[in-house]
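Checked the freezer inventory, then went back to the computational side. Two predictions to log before the end of the day. The first one is the construct we discussed on Monday; recording sequence and tokens without edits.
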Amino acid sequence: MERGSICEEAEMPRQELDEFLDKLLCQYAPWAQRRIEWDVKRTQSLAALQFPFAQYRPGQRAMAGEIYRACRAGKTADCKGGTRLFCQAPTGIGKTMSALFPALKAMGEGNGENLFYLTARNTTQTAAEDALTRLHTAQPELALRSVTLTAKEKVCLHPDPEGHPACLPELCPYANGYYDRIKDALSALLDDTGSFDRAALAGAAKHFSVCPFELGLDLSEWCDVVIGDYNYLFDPVVHLKRFFDASGDWLFLIDEAHNLPDRARTMYSARFFKSSLTEAKRALGKGKSSLRTALTRADRAFLDIRKACVRLAPRRSQTGAPETDTAQTTLLPSLQNPVPELPEPLYAQDGTVFLRELPSALLSPLRAVQAPLQDWLEANPDADAHAQLLELYFAVQDILRSSERYDSHFVTQLTARGSELELQLLCLDPAPFVEASLSAGRSAALFSATLTPPSYYRGVLGCADARAVALPSPFPAENLGLYCMANISTRYRDRETSVQAVSDALARLTSGKTGNYLAFFPSYAYLRQVYEDFAARHPDIRTLVQESGAQMITLHARTRSQFYEGHADWRAVAKLKRRISIPVVGNGDVTCWQDALRMMEETSCDGVAVGRAAQGNPWIFSQIRDAMAGRTVAEPTNEEKLDVLTRHLHALAQLKGEAVAVREMRRHIVCYVRGMRDAARLRVKVNAITEIDEMEAALTAFMLEGKA
């Protein structure tokens, strides 16, 4: 009887479980059927895909053929991590289409489930989107979906007052109830073939009241082409776990691959500042707690190691003499513990020490901070210090994650500046980590106009045995003209004085023969200097800077020779606005919100840039915003000024240490108090102050009590 009753009791849960499973499968079945039908449709469509141009450019067919063969080869006995191809293709070949078209053809033949087009910049993402649009235009029946993934900070529809994403359901209406609405959103979007770029995702997110970032991620599982930044594959923190936590039949196209080594080193490196511990402890306020104890121990460890660094690598003053150890910014009691010994350094000079070993003396106390810090954040979500301690939590997590990867490919850098100690775990050789990421797919093609020497890029990216090809320039050699202008120097020290000469030389060159001209510069900063001068003084010569990826142009309506003298010629801003289609931002002689309104009225510009006028007056931006919106423009109170001054002081201390912060803050205070009564006496007083607490007290007395 007992045994039978047990069986009878067990039958009910089994039946309920079967019913639940049947119900779940009924819900899942339409989506599975949608997937099957789409895969068939996509494969047939890609099999019929035609090159969208009448003919190939010189070198374009060769590049397409190399990428096609790499995609087809996939993983073999000789390439267990997948086939790798390095392709150097000069400007003018049409690299984007040369990569996308053959990869899609390979997918149409069953070689690859999804295609990931990864870039270092937004402009190259746009180029990939444009190439896919051209394929859709040339073949309207093409069944192909693509999505462009953008960082959460750039697509957030409901940021907090500081402009950061507010992702908690109780704070964001697009996050609250997201999973209740996402199925309807996906169902509607998947009914049609489409390319979902940033704007399309934002529009769909607003319509269905869902988070655009999460929508893009969920949509990516239903798209054939995913466009995004390098970090979606290579970054150990933010990579697409839904795809790359396991191997798959993925095709990787890595654009502008010459940027990947430096980007990869940054992804696997981490840094941490001692001052973040000091500031966190100050933010906690008085009172005992497990978090305060953990912060105290970590702060003590960093203080001891900072002393060891100073002793091992004394900093040199401008006179060449070793600097004495300055007073420390610490909330610790006076201790007489001996200064710890550091291992034999690889390098030690001027406050900087490089070590081969992992600094366990610093990492152990940081690990001890994790648990109490997490507990405090969960228990105090509304505390004033929550944002600051959350930033500390992420910094601790970042350095500890990097320590878990630490091996012979890393070095430790310790830098002592004033009271600050900076800890960096530097990844010098990202090869094994990049190789592991690429091994998640079937094939990877890495291409750029500059991949020389190929042995370096193959080695540093973990693809020592990969095939490397270099394609010739598509431009005929007879079209090449070489002109030397011995009277113009573009050396760094001469750039300030050569801007106008270069600008005039370009104007003379373009007037000599009808055609299109492409100018290259040794740096982006120098290019912008020449461009702004060229646009201001030669507005009749049309430039195509917007076609090269610029989304906005700011023009400072002064010549280089004027520097800060004279008056900005706003007429140049107006001319530029009439000549181009992208937004124009005016700059020059905007010292108050009234100037901003007047510039926009006189030039029809789309926005106004403010530079020096914001020194000591960050409220100018909110004043301009209020004025443009027709709201009353208010002047900041002394309490508001004091709050910003204090935040400025502590932020500077966290960045550069107390000694430097106090010294540099003196000139900032001059700007903040300009025009106020007894400002001159305050300046004299703060010039003699050397400690943060004393400076903060002086500012409080001046702002709230009128005591200079």
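The second is the one RB wanted added to the comparison set:
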Amino acid sequence: MARLVTKFKYLKPNRKQRAGGYAKYIATREGAEKIDESFRFAPATVNQVKLIQRLVKDFPDTKEMHEYKDYLAKPNAGNATDFISRAIEDNIGAAAGRKTYADYIATRPRAERMGSHGLFTDDGVEVKLGAVSEELNRYNGNVWTVILSLRREDAERLGFGEGKRWRELLRSETPEIAENFKIPMENLQWYAAFHNESHHPHVHLIVYSKLENEGYLTEKGVQNLRSVFARDIFAQDLVSVYEKQTQHRDDLKKESGERLAEIAARINEKGFDDTVLEEKLVRLAGKLSKTKGKKVYGYLKEDVKALVRSVVDDIGKDERIAELYDLWYERREEVIRTYTETLPPRVPLSENVEFKSVRNAVICAAMDIVRGTMPDAEQLNEEIQAAEPADKEVEKKYLPNFKTTWQLYFWAKDMLDYENDGYSPHKAAWLLEACAKRGNTVAKYRLGKMYLKGDEIEKDIAVALQWLSQAAEDGNEFAEYLLGKTYLKGEDVELDTAKAETYLRRAAGRGNKHAAYTLGKALLDGDVLKQDISAAIRYLKQAADAGFKPAQYVLGKMYYKGEGAEQDLKKALEYLAKAADEYPNAAYLAGKICLTDEEKDIEKALRYFQIAAAGGNDYAEYQLGRLYFFGKDVPRDEETGLSYLKASAAHGNEYAEKLLESIRENRNCFAAVAAARLFQSVLRLFINWPEDESRSRLDRTDKKLRRKIDEKKQAQGLKQE
């Protein structure tokens, strides 16, 4: 596939011009560039090789140029010259400033001219090169430069071998340029010049706003513009690709809808062979039955949306659907390769906005489970509530009204709703038992959980284990998790590590994040199960990757402290950051990592400490107080620093208390700072003493002196690590 090579840079205002070797080369390049054609195929000269190495080092993005690829394939003098010329040309703005850049692209040899120069802009606007150059020279805002390049054979084939087509392209996409540079159309200013190079014709584009403080370009904006330009340039090549992509998308939507309708029908009739997917759809149906308003994905609560996405991803594992999704992505990536070699990661089917209709198909399938055959709700509810569940005649009379087990199940759930006037856990248990006896695995789990907890009905461990075991045999991951946790704790049942581990492993193997975390934590602690660090980390990662915050926090602490795993601050920060919004301690540790030399980022450190402090973490308050009061790495702000220290002290932090006391005693705060730092430095001498000499020398150290240092350190509120 042909490819458009693009380059986006901006020229900062008031920058020092870097004339150096580049500017000199630019000034004399035409003469230097001219070599006898007979020598084009000779090996590149030593000077050319050295200059290429320098250019690639100083301007890494030149590696993406067509000319560089040609040089690597054939490192001869001709290809070396072509690359050097383009590399310097593309970076002339960095070398010699804006005015030079505008003058150069407009007047250089092989610039396609319209009069005395080759600069052009919107149709009907006359371009005066001198005025443009002087305007750019005085302009104090950011100026962006864009370069679009094609191979000669592609340019000729697609009709972009002349400046006219490039002018038409840029003028037609002016609204896109304005939108992605975040510049209002009325303030957008751009100029361009077409260079008809022999091998790689290209266009230079200068973009800025008439208002100096306006406009910015994000990475997303860059990608959007690359896509827009490539779409227009390669339109005729991509027609068949788009057609195939559309066909794959339509086929996938149709296949997903049919598959979901089939699953819903089988669940309503006699049950479905995939118990995990069945359970998710049933849970979704239960949530939707209580959802007011539109039953459309965009209107649902986040927990319901998450369940919908989970079902979509399960459907995506279907062999035919997975195949169609792969084919659709292959066509999409074929398009992306027209403007970049770096492909973005594929997203799951549930997250792909192109397939939003699949989400709503899942919602329809869930609703079909309980729609259409439900008996008269109001009448049946009154009759059942008035009846005595233990009466066999009642069972004989009313249960046949329920044509599917799911109707029984949802009726029972209604009776377990506290807000429902018909709340009756005992009658709900009766309906659930009838449902469970008909083979409904979700009812078995729910019934077993009720008897195990004893919150809604009288606790009965034997009955609970009976139903939970049956649900587990059906492959119910929640029943397996509950059984595993119960046997692990040894509450209400005799501790059984073998059963606990078996059930938890089975549930984790089905993707249950709670089971994965519980098992991982047990294997890590080694108190009940035999310690197995590698297995513990594997299960904890499974739970963490599934978004389970406790697992993310535990892993973060492990990598931070180097306990159970080799210390890795990068990994620690990754996990702690994910857990920071729910775990103040995680936010605090993340902030501490951001203060280390390895992961130094003061802004992030402050943000994490503030999150932790908002959650009541007194150590985070202490750290913020020290940072602001002493002005280390942040602008000094005594008032803010003292407020954090006082809050920390109020929460019982002894280091904050000592530091506040020291500040009050020392009128000269800077003396307190100096003293604190002095004691820190002395302490480091002891900590960093050579290993082979430390014991003997420390033994000889005056114990009284060391004690005084420790006392002073504590008095300054310096936490000992």
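For RB: The longest strand covers residues 188-195. Residues 5-234 form one domain. Let me know if you want it refolded.
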